[in-house]
Amino acid sequence: MNPIPLLYIKPGCPWCSEAQTFFGLHGIQVDVKDVISNQGARKRMFKISSQSLTPTFEYKDFVVADFSINEFIDALEQRPDIKSELGLG
Fold this sequence. Notes:
The chain has a domain at 36-89. It is built from 4 helices and 4 strands; from the N terminus they run βαβαββαα. The chain is an alpha+beta fold. The chain has helices at 14-25, 39-49, 69-77, 80-85, and strands at 6-9, 31-34, 56-59, 62-65.
């Protein structure tokens, strides 16, 4: 069984809202982590991405930081294994 992807967000972030909508439309369950109210999530996001911008997506060893939907899709094209596991390919 695969882990549930993590989506690090900040409330009010329009790109975060777009990401949540994208994942919902594609039936991808994500565990949403608010990095403003959750210090542990904020620290983890910085550890895996070396930055503090959102949205940031984490699934296994696949991390996409500070992305638009098009940037996320471009990153997935480089990882057909992850794309398939997420049900997008």
